[in-house]
Amino acid sequence: MKYRPLGNTGLSVPVLSFGASSLGSVFREVDPKEGVRTVHTAVELGMNLIDVSPYYGLTKAETVLGQAIRELPRDSFLLSTKAGRYGESSFDYSYDRILRSVDESLQRLQTDYLDILLLHDFEFVPWRQVEEEALPALAELKRQGKTRFTGVSALPLSAFRQALAEPREEIDVILSYCHYSLNDSSLLELVPLLEERQVGLISASPLSMGLLSERGTAAWHPADDELKRVCLEAANHCAAKGTDIAKLAVQYATADARIPTTLVSSASPDNIRRNAAWIEEPIDRELLDEVLAILAPVEGRTWPSGLAEYEEGGDAK
Predict the structure, then answer these.
(1) 56 is catalytic
(2) CA 116 centroid distance within chain
(3) What is the rounded CA–CA span in Å between residue 249 and residue 251?
């Protein structure tokens, strides 16, 4: 496993990290014992940055992860969780709730500190509340030693531009998803600002939440019909060439040194082994060029998420 520096944190993170959302049975029902084995497999393979949230499986993911990591030396992994989002439409970014949320997460995770704490999907909360309540809560949690580093997660890149408009000691790390994959490389546009602010970057969902799959996209996926169709065409092209598009996607997502780490989520030890093996193999450049050409008409296309004030050109208050 290769490792890269995470911004100015001093942390060295694997190019491929473990996203623990699957432990919460968000994609399929998962036996906690299988989830524990998956976590142990990931850490053994060097995927020792683990990201979770109380939102995933409505605390189940944190609970299962806690069962797994209590059997591991605490210095053998880096632990990231989130606060602020607790359900599909349940957000609470108040100062006191953020503090309580971390105490609850630490109890479920069976540890006494976090390496990274992120505000979860902050684009659904007015920036004023983030700035006046949530960010001070992050600073207090750092002061208390309950987390080493803090930051924010969101979908819209414009939300990060708002958060990073000025230097903020509460934002050491950001987590972006669905913006560095075969069909969307727009995350690279944010890299100069991150480098200027010395902020670490975690990228998630190299399969674009299932867009890049031969099975087609789940009905709940917010992408438009054309984007779904073109991504399926690319997946089928890979299949015709004898390759799973997931392999190409994971290789592509981890190849650029400007992206320190990429999260993949699975509750299957075999899937984790397969993902870790893929990044050790050379990428098929000819197939990559063919797939990028298929996806070119929809490259960078995304979908709305959160409040209007975070949209491009929005007036954040």
Answers:
(1) yes
(2) 12
(3) 5
pTM greater than 0.90: yes
Helix H or strand E segment including 118: strand 114-119
Q: Is the predicted pLDDT of residue 272 greater than 80, yes or no? A: yes
The alpha-helical segments, DSSP class H, found in 110-184 are 127-129, 135-144, 157-163
What distances in angstroms separate CA 229 from CA 135, 221, 248, one per listed residue? 40, 12, 18
Beta-bridge partner residues of 13: 4
Cα separation of 150 and 135, whole Å? 9
Please report the pLDDT score of residue 317 as a whole number: 41
The amino acid at residue 249 is A
Q: Which of 56, 86, 180, 310 is catalytic?
A: 56
pLDDT per position as a tens digit, 26-41 = 778 889 999 999 999 9
Question: Which burial class, exposed, middle or buried, applies to 90 when counting CB atoms under 10 A from its CB (0-12, 13-18, 19+)?
Answer: exposed
CA dihedral (219, 223, 224, 230) in degrees, to 10, reads -100
The answer to whether residue 316 scores a pLDDT higher than 90 is no
Structure tokens at 312: 């491009």
Q: What percent of the chain has pLDDT over 70?
A: 98
- Left (φ > 0), alpha (ψ -120 to 50) or beta: where does 145 sit? left
Taking Cα atoms as reference points, which of 192, 305, 207 lies closest to residue 262? 207
Q: How far is CA 201 from CA 65, 105, 206, 208, in A?
A: 23, 23, 14, 17
315 pLDDT exceeds 90?
A: no
- How confident is the model at residue 314, as a pLDDT? 58
